[in-house]
Amino acid sequence: MSGPCVTGGCLCGGVRFELTEPATAAGYCHCTRCQRRTGTAASAQARVDGNTFRLLEGCDLVRAWCHPEGGFEKHFCGECGAHLFSRNPDNPSQMSIRLGAFDGDPGVRPSWRTYVAYAAPWEPIPDDGSERFDEGKPSFS
Ligand SMILES: [Zn+2]
Ligand SMILES: [Zn+2]
After folding, report:
1. Labelling 78: which of 15, 23, 85, 97 has CA 20 to 30 A away?
2. How far is the CA of 56 from the centre of ligand 2 (A)?
3. What is the pTM of this model?
């Protein structure tokens, strides 16, 4: 029996990570920062407890960027540019892993959409029944 995938990495393979517990929740973020960051309409990410995250390889490759106006630090591979995760610099237990960074099925499905008020005009938000928030999600989990 195989459970949810708890490992992942970047495009070039230099960065590898694992979670000691599977992710339990996920959502899409439609904010303009995520549009810029990903080059797409929305970012799909799983929220995890940062204490369950282990960086296995590529510590020297991971770069973090923090927006001058604050918010979660965006971590990516400095070699291939792949987006990996974001973390609250004031509370490292608050962390999101990009769903595309997992090696396989992380087991969770996106169930909400945040910052839909800023959604890209060129891609309609699918009517998929997910909970929608004009701004951020009121609570982290
Ligand atoms: Zn890489
Ligand atoms: Zn966002």
Report:
1. 23
2. 26
3. 0.93
* DSSP structure class, residue 3: -
What pLDDT is attached to residue 114?
97
> Which ligand minimizes its atom distance to the CA of 16?
1
d(CA 54, ligand 2 centre) in Å: 23
For residues 47 and 130, what is the distance between their CA atoms, to the nearest angstrom? 16
Neighbours of ion ligand 1 (CB under 5 A): 10, 12, 14, 77, 79-80
Separation in Å, CA 35 to CA 39, 40, 43, 100, 124: 5, 5, 7, 15, 14
User: Residue written as tokens 């997910």?
Assistant: 130
Nearest partner of 141 among 15, 45, 58, 25, judged by Cα: 25
Q: Residue 112's closest CA among 140, 87, 91, 90?
A: 140
Kind plus residue range of the DSSP H or E element containing 36? helix 32-38
Which segments in the chain show pLDDT lower than 50? none
CA of 124 relative to ligand 1 center, distance in Å: 31
Residue 1's pLDDT is 56
Q: Which amino acid is at 33?
A: R
Q: Tell me what pLDDT residue 2 has.
A: 77
